[in-house]
Specification:
The chain is an all-alpha fold. 75% of the residues lie in helices and 0% in strands. It starts with a helix and ends with a helix.
Length: 155
């Protein structure tokens, strides 16, 4: 879900008019939504792990295995291959426990880190530096795009 300043403002206004019981329910639903976003990131990590195996065993699966998988999964060929390779890169670049731990701690605005945050720091060699960049994203509520511009200013 994309959260804009306008949407946040509407949410704040809606909260002001909401009965306390409904406000409590809406906060629980929001928590569930964040858990779902984090869960999707972990699902993409696990899919990327499987895709990495396919990528490494090209002789077994054929040179166009990613294209075939993209089509099978209902993606357009080029977009799908790009998405599948991004999932693979996530799994290649990070330890599963690291990703899971990072997703447990929300950003200052309550939003979870997203797939793009990890992709923004994946080329940073040091795990400690990756963690510091992700901590900065949490503290300043940086979008994946903003984090990427800070981590890679010359790109």
């Amino acid at each position: 879900m994309v959260t804009t300043k306008k949407a946040k403002g509407r949410r704040r206004c809606a909260h002001g008019n909401m009965p306390k019981a409904l406000l409590a329910e809406s906060q629980q639903i929001r928590k569930m939504e964040h858990m779902t976003q984090a869960g999707m990131c972990m699902l993409w990590y696990d899919m990327g792990h499987r895709l990495h195996k396919v990528f490494l065993e090209e002789a077994k699966y054929g040179s166009n295995a990613m294209e075939q998988l993209a089509e099978y999964l209902g993606y357009t060929r080029d977009e799908g291959v790009q998405i599948l390779h991004a999932m693979r890169l996530l799994a290649e670049s990070f330890d599963r426990d690291f990703v899971h731990r990072q997703l447990q701690e929300p950003m200052a605005d309550g939003q979870p880190l997203r797939f793009g945050h990890f992709m923004s720091v994946r080329e940073v060699a040091s795990i400690a530096r990756r963690r510091r960049w992700l901590d900065l994203a949490r503290k300043k509520c940086l979008s994946p795009e903003s984090l990427g511009k800070i981590v890679h200013p010359n790109s």
